[in-house]
Design a protein that fits this description.
Chain B: GO terms for molecular function: ATP binding; ATP hydrolysis activity. Chain B: Keywords: ATP-binding, Nucleotide-binding, Transport. The structure holds 2 protein chains of 2 kinds. By secondary structure, chain A is mainly alpha-helical. In chain A, about 75% of the residues lie in helices and about 0% in strands. The two termini of chain A are about 20 Å apart. By secondary structure, chain B is an alpha/beta fold. The chains are: A mainly alpha, B alpha/beta.
Chain lengths: ~250, ~300
Amino acid sequence: MIGVLKSELFKLRTTRATKIVVLSAILLPAIIFTLTSIFAFGNGKAGDSLIAMVGNFTPLTALLLGVVGVLCSTQEYSQGTIRITLVATPNRVKVLLAKMLTMIIVSICSAAVLLVLCLVPSQFILQSRDVTFDVIGQDLRVLFSAIILMSLIAQLGLSLGLIFKSSPGAISALLIWPTILEGMVFGLLSLAFKDSNVIRFAPIQGNGFQLVSPFFNPGQNTWLTSLVYFSGFVSVFIALGSTLFSRRDA
Amino acid sequence: MIIVENLTKSYGSKKAVDDLSFSVTPGRVTGFLGPNGSGKSTTMRCMLGLDKPDAGTTTFDGRKYAEIDSPLSHVGSLLDAGDAHKGRTARNHLRWIAMTNGISASRVDAVLQMVGMEDTARTKVGKFSLGMRQRLGLAVALLGDPKVVILDEPANGLDPEGIRWTREVMRHLADEGRSVLVSSHQLVELSLVADDLVVIGQGKLISSGPIAQFMTQHAKTWVRVVSPQFAALAELVIAQGGTVERTKDGGDFHAISAITIGDIAAANNIVLHELSPQTGSLEQAFLDATDASVEYRGQTTTNVWEAPKP
């Protein structure tokens, strides 16, 4: 199992597309965060804790890690290496677990690097500007939520890749569902049911992204409910992707 | 040793492989032949667990492929030379495969040298010609120093030197006591290296056994005769049940042996300049054996390209 895991990590390290997306997932929020530290907070006080502000960027990083998850599975099909992977490791459950663990490792490492890149320079910048701020304050939960959200969306991407077997289809589903379709569907549902709070049933916007929010308004799901709801949503795709991967001819 | 028993695989209503059974013996090169769409690649994929057969089993030295620990050390395979990420270097391509089976990086370098790719080890696969990809595919097959080697069209895209090298590799592997199963459309090449043949058509077994046995069963035989008194000899041979086909400088006699023709000529004082038994090529024998099971047949060039008459 260790060998298969090492192999999966090596595969991700040795393709340009995955490296670019992982770097974008980390550097993009880090750059925006640094620029925010330089130019914002003219009143001399950062309203939120720094970690809460990092949480605001987490959905972007998570979606890009989801794309890495997609590539982790679809590149195997598009390049034909899936046949070699399964010839080298005929136990498909082992291959699947290695891919899932790989995405968890990538998510945790990305989250760690993102936090360092966001928090360390911004503290120096804000101190030099005499801006008062909290690093973590009451928002320690956001730190763990960020890792959980990134890991879950990376798993969602991996599963979508296994279901679609092609990058365009899986990436479209991963990006269009939370950014466009979910808003439209739940907007229509709120009109139909005359309930402005229907969005709490939206798996990604209403629950997944909500995990990293420092505030929970009344009427929204609690953090734990959101975690269970979103995990359940991702689990459905993991189950479907795993079943197809195990049963389909390579 | 590979034993394939009653292998059956359908895609929808089409049976790609139909109750196929054969074996591949250690120390011998077994050629796997069949027309396009006859089920060769499907059979190989089923053997390696890539496709799930509807029925039947394949065992490698008594074990199913999925039950083998570190399978690359037992079975090496080349199914498609294109199965490599174009953005990875040749060495990295082999390294990720080696990692799955605990094969060392030094072995990766050794196989790269073995296939003559040590100078291109750090070149990306996307820049390789088809021939180089075939060599890389062979390196993958040999990575675990396996006892069984399965190769699907290994000489595709290789230059004459590469083809000869592939042939020598296969012969060498068999001489070391390994079981080698190789599918190829290059029948002349296969006839030079194969000891046994497995011939299939529309998923069914047509013939299995030593190449000499296949030739005896399926290759045409005739007797070439050149004689200044050919017409007289032909008349006598036809009377004995033979048939005659005239050629430029003599003729070919069918359905009669060279000994009988020689006896007839001697008994009738007929001068012979040539009397030689002829055997058809493996290609002709293969075409005759699989004629009934050819699924995709092209038109002759003249039929396709003939200009319409006004």
